[in-house]
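G.,

No rush on this.
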Amino acid sequence: ALRSMIGRGGFGEVYEAVRRSAGESVAIKFIPFKKEKEADAAMREFLMIMKLPAHPNIIPILGAIVKTEQTPLNAELPGGARMDNYSTNNTSSTSTAHRSALESMPLLRQSWVSLITPYYKEGDLRKHVLWYMRRGERFPVGIAANIGAQLCRAVSFLHSHNIIHRDIKPENVLLSHNHSRAVLTDFGLAKEADRLVQTLKTKVGSLPFVAPECFSGSYRYQCDIWSIGCVLYAIAAMRVDAGNARMLFNDALKPGFRKDVELELAHYPPAYIGVMLDMLVMPPERRISLENAHLQLESIAASFT
């Protein structure tokens, strides 16, 4: 049975597995087709990422596997992945036994798609922030700024390919063991736009990280800039749990918002807070550009190394 679940998202569950040919760990995200929109989201994620050029801060899709009532378990999609080539890290079963275990799972008795990506055993940004919190330490400024710079680079790359992520949050940022690389993942809510100025009209995202314009159902690429600002705030304030998350889209409307944040985060350098607050500007068109934010955050990170 698949017992090594390493995460759960809005559209499915993620398990650790081992690629038999190379003996390396991978992550397999299973998304059941309970509703048509879930199937659409899963396939949209796969197709969008597969056609993107490689980028160091964007999770690559190594392959995908689909199972429907009309499709056998070992069917392939572009990328050449088959479930026969993978095993869970807790079993040495044969391919036949492995397929039997998969089919016995209640989650997988229905139609589903799975996306195969590299496995980051160090976990996501939320996990790392909580680690520092448990130790009674602040999250290092240099690392925070470096993560922010890499997120700006990743999102700028997506925007250049007409993709809006729409769900940037600590859980969707994977980190290497030494924090040197941040990788943006989980494109289940991503949206491909036809034109840079196109306005989208849906309500999406994780509440503490949602741009205010998303609540009106009409937004553009700048909504991702707001979300990065929220992530930078969550790191510095160490507020990454549902119980202590701050709804910045609501607080930003209050008088004295900027001064309040500056006082709360006085332990962080003004340059970092300045970039973050320039992302958290209500009119989307007045937010700092990703390019400018990247340069400033990269400079801050360099000064702390």
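When you get to it, here's the other one too:
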Amino acid sequence: VIAKILQTAKPDKKGHVDRSDLGIDLKPMQDLETFFAVDIDKGVLVNSIDRNSPAEKAGVKPQDILMDVNGRPVNVRFPEELAPARKMIADLPLNSEVSLTLKRGREMVHLTSATQKLQGAVGEEKEFKTWGVSVRDMTRTYANQAQLDDPTGVVVTTMSPGYPAAKAELAPGDVIHAVNGHRVEDLDEFSKLYNESVDKKQKAVLLQTQRGRGRQSAVLKVTYSEE
């Protein structure tokens, strides 16, 4: 873990270890084998599925029994066996296809999903001084809590009075989806577009934002100090 953290560390960014996620909440099969007609020590119950998650998009449903992942059996009868099952998913390569075998009623269902980066409930936050705004990486958890259909973009957290973001009447909780027509998938993409704009000393920056359920545009009028 230490080696991976050092490998990904940059002067302006902390190192990290990425884990994979499918958006599935698992539950032990203890006392449920008879109800679901599953042999003892076979499978794990899909308790719930995150909205907009890879598992949902692949067609996984609550109360499916996950039998194997990429051909590796998943056996979770007791709570203490949950951690190895979660680790099996977390250790999968990021953005890779994964085959899932599930028992649904009396049928065996074979689905293909794709792993995503495991996120916390709160995304990483960063300040962008020239525009006078701090934003946080969007997470699937935040998008679901805010009832947003699109789980991409960055969320405005704070603004500096008198700076372009405040003058453009952005507000905490606004989601920025595009900068000058370029889609913002995450904080890294927003940082890249910000740096490009500042390097070019662009005096007007068009943002596509979302507030609640509505979409709107905001223009940042940026001034630069004379060197």
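The first strand starts at residue 20 and ends at 21. The chain has a mean pLDDT of 90.

Enjoy the weekend,
O.
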